[in-house]
Amino acid sequence: xxxxxxxxxxxxxxxxxxxxxGCDSLPSLPRIDLSGWFxxxxxxxQTASLDIVARAPDLTFRFHKLxxxxxxxxxxxxxxxxxxxxxxxxxxxxxLQRSAPDWISGTQANxxxxxxxxxxxxxxxxxxxxxxxxxxLKPRMAGAPLAxxxxxxxxxPLRGAEPNGNASDDVDGLxxxxxxxxxxxxxxxxxxxxx
Length: 195
Known about the structure:
Largest sheet: 4 strands, antiparallel
CATH topology of the domain at 49-139: Gyrase A, domain 2
CATH architecture of the domain at 49-139: 2-Layer Sandwich
Structural class: alpha+beta
Shape: rod-shaped
Strand order of the largest sheet: 1-2-8-7
């Protein structure tokens, strides 16, 4: 046998021993966990995990090994309910609050769903990634457009400048009496219309 051929199996065995031992003298090599291959558990699926991808200006959680089937945002209570393909570990959902207590006020897991409640006014969204999904919390802007007012807005009366209904000569158009008469309603006392 040629001498260099004897060295190939020796070099391969030495390299494998260094990787298995997690040699600290070679910091550029990644650590590889091969324990599952040697104890017969190489067919088991890894459990779900959670990472924080970003903290500012938005908070982004990345769920690994967890399939999201749907979500429902409740803006009134500032919460999102996540629906999963199977049962979810309640400790994983509780990690949301433990890892970002300044953003999350509470969590609850129930079978294949989980609810996350934010401390601040946020917009929730989800996005699929290769091995799971991202949950994104984006603060709502203080200068965001407001909803239409629910109370009536006060406008100028139709009658004219004087409170007794006598319009001055400089007011143009039909006054209240003219409008009501034009629409066939009589607003005089005793007319029975209630106006």
